[in-house]
Amino acid sequence: MEGSSQGEAPRRLEGKYLGMACCWALGLATLVAWNCMLTIEDYYYKLFPKYHPARLLTLIYMSFAVVSMAILTYYESKIDTRKRNLSGLVLFFLSSLLLLLLDLASSGKGGIGNFIGIGAIAGSFGVADALLQGGMVGDLFFMCPEFLQSYLAGIAAAGFLISALRLLTKAAFEKFPNGLRKGVILFLVISTFFEFLCILVYAFLFPKLPIVKYYRLKASTEGSNTVSADLAAGGIHINQGDENEAKRHERLSNKELFFENIDYAVDLTLIFVLTLSIVPGFIYEDTGSHQLHSWYPIVLITVFNACDMISRCIPLVEFLKLKSRKGLMIAVLSRFLLIPAFYFTAKYSDQGWMILLISFLGLTTGYLTVCVVTEAPKGYKGPEQNALGNLLVLCVLCGVFVGVALDWLWLVGKKKF
After folding, report:
1. What structural domains and CATH numbers belong to the chain?
2. Over the stretch 87-116, which tens digit does the pLDDT of each residue have?
3. Which of 177, 192, 378, 383 is deepest in the core (most CB within 10 A)?
4. Distance CA 340, CA 125 (A)
5. Using CA atoms, how far apart are residues 172 and 182, in angstroms rounded to an integer?
6. What span, in angstroms and rounded, lies between the C-alpha atoms of 58 and 173?
7. What would you report as the CA-atom Rg of the chain, rounded to the nearest whole angstrom?
8. How far apart are CA 101 and CA 107, in angstroms?
């Protein structure tokens, strides 16, 4: 296995900071639509009080995401990354637009028909997530670490910015007639417009940056067959001789990559099993009634997203980054002590302790995720890094799916189960 020269691109290559900004925006685009749906759950609880929307919509979303990601991971070496990522962005845009049109067409009414429609859109968000997140992480795994970290920071920023905007719109429209719905519509308009802008960013700006072309050309020479369309978009065309030369390169199989990085895979799975067993279902339905009333779950979600976003920047400081594989595993396993902590806090303590706990959950989720994902691709060739990126995203989505399923256990023994 050849050592990767990740992070060793010539210093004079232009476009690094613009590339980081593009990656941040594309990370934002990966989850902004879903976070919009997640953050307006108070609206859906008003329309569909008996359907557990926070839990059920998340379960639908993750079911489609996991199945789609499993298929895409199996065929990743044969799928054109450019077409995959653009398909994900376009699907996010169309699904966000459909969600907006559905609310306008139904005049904000409840009913099983509308809920089924929203569930179908949640499923399409899951497919789009698998297309875009897996494609982007695989693509960025063979570029400089700052690109990957910017993308992950953008994913976290999606949650925080949407939550903060939700607080503002809730405050602005709360006293207006039908104010809750007006805030939701504004939300969906912003989300849809942003997804459209990101289609343009990925299609016309990102592939033309010199540093991006450098890494993709390097991956191509190492045997990657997924970057040819992106190189063509950047003005670089690989002739048949180059492709034949690339095919001579051998790479580890997905199975070999998985077993070499099984501890990282377990880390990511367990990180999100725990996190999604608490957020969002437990937060919306099981934290009790407090002084903040209907604001309480939105505040908790906002605090979680803010801490998640901040913690993803901590590993930028090299001596604060946890690199030990054993240390990462210990840290991940120790987080499961949060389950009884949340249970007893919800049952016996006030909102201050809950805010403290949700802050710690957000900090550890973001920090450990970045530590694992930025360490994993080191030492591999471009095609292997792309495959490993897809495998790890699949582990993340599997962890999220299991966490969402386990989240229903909080309802055991309750009348509303």
Report:
1. 16-409 (1.20.1250.20)
2. 999 999 999 999 999 988 887 787 888 889
3. 383
4. 32
5. 10
6. 26
7. 21
8. 10
